[in-house]
Design brief:
It is built from one helix and twelve strands. It is mainly β.
Amino acid sequence: MMKKYFGIILLGLVMFSCQDKTARHAQVVKHYYAETDLPWVIYYYDVVGKDSTWVEEKWYHENGVLQLEGKIVDNQREGEFRGYFPTGELMSVGKFKKGLREGKGKIYFEDGKVNIENEYRNGKPAGIWKYYDEDGNLVDVKDYH
């Protein structure tokens, strides 16, 4: 029985030492709040050989709760990003294209009701923005056409 486990371990070590040096693996870079030693921001990278590509970021509130998360493409924010209140409740959803805000988004009150419906084009406010009070009543509209 012991020989079987030793053989499996030895085979694993041989395979690991002979693996392709261009194989992809992840690298995580963390920065911490000095006062609490909780994460402040974490950057995720895909690493192939000596090359690394930034692929994701996560920011945290001082209490350790996720504050913002999203993907990175070509060193710029890309796709959907989500922001959170210190309680963990969803605060905002918006999209990025080549590092600039793009498309429709929403900002929420902490109870989950919509606060603002917005839109961006090339990083600038666009379209009709709608503002709601905490009871869900439409209280203001701005036209950014």
